[in-house]
Design brief:
The protein is mainly α. It contains ten helices and no strands.
Length: 229
Amino acid sequence: MTKKSGIDQDALIEMFSQASARQGEALRKAVSTATLKALQGRELTLQNVRNVLQSVTQAASAGAAQNPGSTADVQKLLEKAFDGMDGALLKAVEAHRTALQQFVSQGADLQQGPLKTAVANLEKMEEVFFSTVGKAIQDSAGPVQNAWAPVLNAMKLKGTDTGAQATATVEQLLDQAHSTLRDSRAMGLRTAQALLEGYSTLVSGVLIGMTEGLQQGSAEAPATGTRKR
């Protein structure tokens, strides 16, 4: 079953139902790839991010419920699911940064008008991540819901790569925008509004370009070890 979010839930369910704790890294990569591809297939709005994360979480939960492993092993698999989604959202944050950078370089004021909303949405990315996964978990069966609880609680204490990068990105862009406004004439609000009409599509296009570049680089570069989270 492939939902409107673009996620092949059946494939993910099967992977989680059969995976062992030793296959966690492969599972993380599969979740990250599936999430990223789904995000690429639509405008990169917060609502679309929610839809994709919900579908992935539901599939991971359904598969984990069928997994014969111990509770500890299932928790490890769910940790990898969360890490995989985090990795995909990190790419989405980078795409937002690249797109907003184009506005900043033209003298846009990121603290006014539609650009302020775009920055606010970037700041909300981690909050949306946690709230969406948490809500999707509530629909899970008892044992899986219990297995998710310590995973989600630990991630909230630790924080996500997505949240850390979003915070750093906003700070960097606001500082740069302030300097640009001081040293040059600002982009007119009307111009910014016109550009923002297609902002989500722009970010989606940037995300696609980034991923294609990574895939091309991976094909040309020799195989190297993958850092484990």
